[in-house]
Each structure stands twice: as structure tokens, then as C-alpha cells.
Amino acid sequence: MAPQEKREELTWMHVLVRVFLNSTTHPIEYAKVLIQLGHEPLKPYKSRTVFGREAFYYPSVFSYIVHIKNRDGFFGCYRGLGPKLTANIVSGIAFQRVTESIKFKDFDGDDVDIENLTMKERTQRFLQNTSRETAGRAAAILVSQPFHVIAVRCMAEFVGEEGQYTSVFTAVGIIYKEEGIKGFFCGLIPRLLCDLTALWLGKTLAHIINNYLLEDRDLKQYVSASMNFLASAMTYPLQVVSNCMAVSGSGLTAGSPPNMPIFSGWLDCYSHLRQVRGLKRGSSMLWRPFTGATVMMGGSLAIPTSSMFSQPSLS
């Protein structure tokens, strides 16, 4: 098999694997998006922290999925899967094409023996590879953003049950008619910042640790994955901002007051989410702390309700 044909086969195999994994895990991602948008249909429950302090927690993401299934049925758990898969396929192909087209003269390819390179050469190779991946990811995000916006809005319709975004073509018509071309790129900047910042942060930390702090080869193989996870956790708030911006002002119930303010820009969205302690929405699947207001009632923690502050009736 020719090298070009082998690369083509690997490309499509990678795309098919991504499609399979995204289809399998879509209900979790669906619930996560709704949580990021601030939709919490299930009542919090009281528990205790590891230090024994009383606290309220939202039910796990799996309880959330059961709630979706009970309301919309099994296939209702796959709302938005079509445009999401389209976004993943388009982004995967764009990433592959861009990264394959960028070549460097020195220290390029997987056949380079890193152990025989000097520290300067290792750093040069790291910068080359990361720059190439940056270009690939930026192109992938740019071409897939319209489908990403459609996917998020399809999922957001769970809140208000509008039923407008019935297909990708219908969604394209609605967005173009109501918002124009810019409607397809809502939330693009925070999504780019999230992905590219996580890329450079994770790669840079791994490069520094592997080349300046660690000598054990067995430990080095775990550093990259660990640093990527750390970088993703640090930039996660931008992912929440991006998905909120994809819905805010769209006319959907999930993106309109009182469920969500109409933001003037992504910085305004970030500031609001920071004030309401919403930047980490959806970051945990099992133990999800309740971030709303709490009061002490009779020596016990409680969630304030309107009845607590109503005037007592006169008999």
C-alpha cells in the first residue's frame, strides 16, 4: 500500500472511531451542555462534605440523563447528535489536511530520535509540532463552529421545547434569517481561546517537565496526558462561556431571561458566570455542588424559598 493511501485510510479510520465514540457518549455530553447552560430541573439534595459540613448537591449527570429519557424517551437522549457528528467529521478532516500540509525542514516526522537531540533541538522540534497542531486545531474549530452552534441549540431546545431546529438545513435557514452569518460563529472566540490555550499550556508543561525535571523514561510517558488534563481543567470556564454564547440571544427559552441574560459579548458572559459561580458548571459528573443561595433554618442548612419570606396570614 502506498504511503498516501495508507494516510488516507488512517484518516478515515480516525474519523469513524471519533463518530462511534461521540455517538456512544452523546447522552453524557447532552446533559453536560444543559448543565453548562444553567438548566437544573432536578432538586438538590442535602449531604455532607469530606469535612463533615452540611452542603447541597445536584443529582449526578446520570440522574440527569434518566430525567431526559423519562421525558423524551430513549431517542430523546440523542437530541443534537446529527450536527454534532457533522461538526466532528468536518473538524477532523480539516485538522488532518492542515497538519499534513505544514512541513518543516529540520527535526520533522516521527522517526526522529529525540534522545539524541540537544536541548535546543528538542525545543525547536516542540515549537514546530505545537505550531503545526495549533494551525490544525484553529482551522478545525473555524470550519466546524456553525455545526457546533447548531448542535448546542438543538440540545438547548430541551428547556423550552421549541422544536425549531429539526434538522441541520432547517437550523441553517433559521440562524441565517434571524442573525445572519455572524449567528453561525457565536461563541467562536472563547472556544478558540479554550482549545489553543489548553494546547500550549499542556504541551509546554510537558516539555519542561520531561526535559528539565524528569529523567525516568517510564514516568515521562504519563506526563503528557497529565498535563493535558490539567490544562483542560484550567481552561474549562471558557468552554462554558462558549456554549452559553452559542445560545444567548437566540430566541430560545434557554438563552433568554430569566434563564439567561442577553450578553453584549463573551467577556460580559464570563463576568456574569463568575459572579454567579457558574464557570465550573458541568465539570463534575458525580458530585455536583449546589452553587445557589443557602440559609440556616432551625440550626440546619436549607435552600431559601418564597414561602420563607411571606407575611404570616392573620386568622
Q: What is the count of DSSP helices, taking H or I runs of 4+ residues?
A: 9
Mean pLDDT across the residues is 87
Rg over CA atoms: 23 Å
Listing every helix as H and every strand as E from the N terminus to the C terminus, the arrangement reads HHEEHHHHHHHEEE
Contiguous low-pLDDT stretches (5 residues minimum) are none
The helix content, as a percent range, equals 55-70%
Q: Tell the overall outline.
A: globular
List the strand order in the largest sheet. 1-2-3
**How would you name the oligomeric state of the polypeptide chains in this document?**
single chain
Strand percent estimate: 5-15%
How is the secondary structure organized here?
Elements: H1 3-24, H2 26-36, E1 45-48, E2 54-58, H3 61-72, H4 81-101, H5 119-160, H6 168-179, H7 188-213, H8 217-247, H9 266-275, E3 288-289, E4 295-297, E5 300-302
Antiparallel strand pairs: 1-2, 2-3, 4-5
Helix pairs in contact: 1-4, 2-3, 4-5, 5-7, 7-8, 8-9
Describe the structure.
The relative contact order is 0.12. The strands form two sheets. This protein has a three-stranded antiparallel beta sheet with strand order 1-2-3, with no helix packed on it. It has a two-stranded antiparallel ribbon with strand order 4-5. The mean pLDDT is 87. It is mainly alpha-helical and 315 residues long. It has nine helices and five strands, in the order ααββαααααααβββ. A hairpin with a 5-residue loop joins strand 1 and strand 2 (54-58). Helix content is 59%, strand content 5%.
